[in-house]
Design brief:
There is one protein chain. 46% of the residues are buried. Helices cover 22% and strands 31% of the residues. It has a 7-stranded mixed beta sheet with strand order 1-2-5-6-7-10-11. It is an alpha+beta fold. It is globular and about 55 Å long. Bound molecules: zinc ion (ZN).
Length: 290
């Protein structure tokens, strides 16, 4: 188990944890982009799945330990584990590599409630019982996201949130529904974007002139830096594109670090404009053994 790489943003230390590598259908990840284009950077397997990550930045300062998203966790059935090529989840191991445990997390900021970002809210015990993974953490999610997850109105939403009750129930007392942009602690802000889901949010950190943003499913891999490269899952791809322009524009002018929720090679990067296109400048690569 590799030690998660870190960056310093003012007085914050940010470690890039992952809940592990997994696989998902390449067509779903790139929407209208033809396979011939995405397969060069993301070679599909015989089931058309590409290798993805479950990057969860951990933002630390003094006693604050704020995790942004928490991966898939260990709750999947055997059939789902095969479909997504994911096991028990690496997050607890990566926390141990930092000298921490699940109980040290003081807050979890959820970009949205899809299973690959919020499934890790629970851990399945050997008995089969699901318990809260982060027993001391306040859990922040947009109010609208919570409402839709609890009461999906159509078949597509019902499928996207079929796990929601299972992961929310053991955490019921510690979930805080936020409405609009909210500063979780001074310098760490949840910013709604919409696009991927109606109430999807990203996390921005700013301190002493330095800044960082986890763009979650607005820019899930390095390939999604390109405007039209968006996931087929996006409920409103045009909003995703607008939000991408906004947040990447800011990252370029402020020389911010950004991190990618699902890139299998790059945890985080600084971006720049190269011959009219957004390009990676500095990067924090995913260690080989991960
Ligand atoms: Zn995702």
């Amino acid at each position: 188990m590799s030690i998660p790489p870190k960056i310093q943003i003012g007085s914050f230390r940010i470690a890039f944890l992952t809940d592990g590598l997994w696989r998902n259908d390449g067509g779903c990840m790139f929407g209208v982009v033809p396979r011939e284009l995405w397969k060069r950077e993301h070679p599909p397997d015989e089931q058309n799945r590409i290798r993805l990550n479950l990057t969860c930045p951990l933002i630390m300062r003094a006693s604050d330990a704020i995790l942004v998203d928490c991966g898939i966790g260990n709750r999947l059935s055997d059939v789902e584990r095969k479909i997504f090529d994911h096991g028990d989840g690496w997050l607890p191991g990566h926390l141990r590599a930092l000298g921490m445990e699940l109980g040290d997390i003081t807050a979890v900021l959820l970009s949205h409630l899809h299973f690959d970002h919020a499934g890790g809210l629970v851990r399945r015990r050997d008995s089969g019982k699901l318990e809260a993974a982060f027993p001391r953490a306040r859990i922040f999610v947009q109010k609208g996201e919570l409402e839709i997850a609890r009461d999906p109105r159509n078949e597509r939403l019902r499928a996207a949130y079929r796990h929601a009750e299972e992961i929310l129930a053991p955490n019921r007392d510690r979930i805080e529904a936020i409405d609009g942009p909210v500063e979780i602690v001074p310098g760490v802000t949840a910013i709604p974007t919409g696009g991927h889901t109606r109430d999807h949010q990203v996390c921005a950190v700013a301190d002493a002139g330095a800044s960082f943003a986890h763009l979650a499913d607005i820019v899930p891999t390095r390939s999604h830096l390109r405007g039209p490269w968006n996931q087929a899952y996006d409920l409103d791809a045009l909003t995703t594109m607008e939000q991408k322009t906004l947040h990447l524009g800011r990252a370029i002018t402020e020389r911010s670090w950004i991190s990618f929720a699902h890139d299998d090679q790059v945890f985080a990067a600084r971006v720049t404009i190269d011959r009219g296109r957004i390009a990676l400048a500095e990067t924090i690569p995913v260690p080989e053994q991960d």
